[in-house]
Amino acid sequence: MSLMHKDRVTPHHTSPIRQDQTYILYWMQAAQRLHENYALEAAMRASVRHNKPLRVLFVLDPTFKEANHRHYSFMLEGLSSLRDKLRALNIEFYLDIGPFTDTVVKHLSRAVLFIFDKGYTRALRAVRLAVVEAAIAENLPTYEIETELIVPIEKASQKCEYAARTLRPKLLRQVETYLDEAVLTPPLHAPLAEPSYADMPVEAWLTHIEADTSIRKSPYFTGGEDIALARLETFIDELLCHYDKSNDPSLNLTSQLSPYLHFGQLSAVRVYQRVSAALDRCPVAVEGFLEQLLVRRELAFNFVYYCNGYDRFDTMTDRWAYETMHAHADDHRPILYTKDDYHRYDTHDPYFNAAMKEMVLTGYMHNYMRMYWGKKIIEWSPDMKTAYETILELNNAYFIDGRDPNSYAGVAWLFGRHDRAWTRRDIFGSLRYMNAAGLKRKFDIEAYVERMERLQPSKKS
Q: Which of 33, 314, 339, 417 is placed for a possible disulfide with 412 were both Cys, Cβ 3.0 to 4.6 Å?
C-alpha cells in the first residue's frame, strides 16, 4: 500500500486512461533517484494496475541555460547508475536529447497516462505548463507529483514569505504529516526494448549535448544516489553531533549534501528522517541541521516559486534594501576587481581567494564562506547591480548546486532578502556587512586557507 500523501498529487487532467496505448509515461526531471521518489512510486503502481510497461523518460536539453560540463558530468554519473537500477526492476529508462517541451511532447501520443515531477523555478515551471497543455489537448490523463520538498509548497504557504520566522511555524505544524514512505512496486509487464541514447555509455551522452567544457567536472564530487546515501550515513555517524560548530570553515563539518539534493539524487524526506533519528544523541546539533534542511531550504523554494523576479536585480529583494542601496550608490569604492580577478582568485584578501579557489576547483564552498565571498564582491564592485550579476554568474557557473532555489535565495540574502537592516556604513548602507576581522575573531581562518592551498586542479581542467 502506498503511503504517499494525497497533497503531493496535482491532477491536471482526469480523463479516462487510454488503455489502447502503449506505456505508462513518467517524465523524470527533478527526482533523479529510486528511493523516496513519489512520482516513480505512482508510475510503478499505475503500471501494475493497468498491466502496461513503464517508460521513465529523461530529457537532456542542450540549450538549458547556464548548464556546463561540471553540472552535466555530475548529473549523468547519477543517471547512469539509475538507468541500471531501473532496468533491474523491469523499467525502461529512455534517454532523449532535445528541447524539453518538444521532446517530451513527442512521447505523449503513445501514453496510457502521464506523470511528471514538480518544478519550482520559472523556466522549469514554464516547460511543465507547455507540456501539460499538450497532454490536455491529447485528452491524456496527467498528474504532477511533488517530490523535492518535505512539506508541499502550496500547503506550506500561499505567498512569498518575508523571512524564516514567518514560514517556520507553518512548516513545523505540518512536517510530520508529510514524512511519507515511498513503496516500490516493480512492474509485472516486460519493459519496452526500444533503442534510445540510454543504450550508449555515459561518456557519449556528454558528446551529444556539446556541453560548455570551460568548467570541468569536479574531482571531489561524484554523482549518484548510492554515493549520496553513503555520504548521508557518513555525515550522521561522524559529523552530525558536531554540526553546531559547522559555521567554522576551518573544521569542515558541513554535510556537503547540497549537490545531491539539487539534482534530486537524494530525498529531503530521507535526510530529515535519518537525521531526526539522532535527536536524543545530540539535540542541539540535530535541531540546527533540521532548521537548515526544512526551514531555510524550503524558504528558498518558496522564494523562487512565489517571487517571480527572484533572479533579477531590480526585483529580488525588499523595498528597504533598495532604498539603502540607492542612498549609498555614490559612495566611494576604493577597491575594485574584475571577474577575471575572481576567476584567478587574485585579490588582496587571502580568505576570499581561498574560498574562490574552493569554488573553482571543487564546485563547492563552505556555507559561511559563501556569505563572506558574496559580501566582498559587493564591496569590490562599481555598483550593486554589477555585484549582483557577477555573484549570480559565478555561483551558477562553478557550483555543482548552482541554479538551485537555495542559490537564488542565498544571493538575494546578500542584498537583504530574508534579512534585516543593520548599522549603516559606507557602500553597504543598512545591508549586513562582513569583514576579515570577523573571520579572524570567530575562527581559525588560517587553517581554512591552508587546507585550500593544498587543493590541486583536476588533470583535465
A: 417
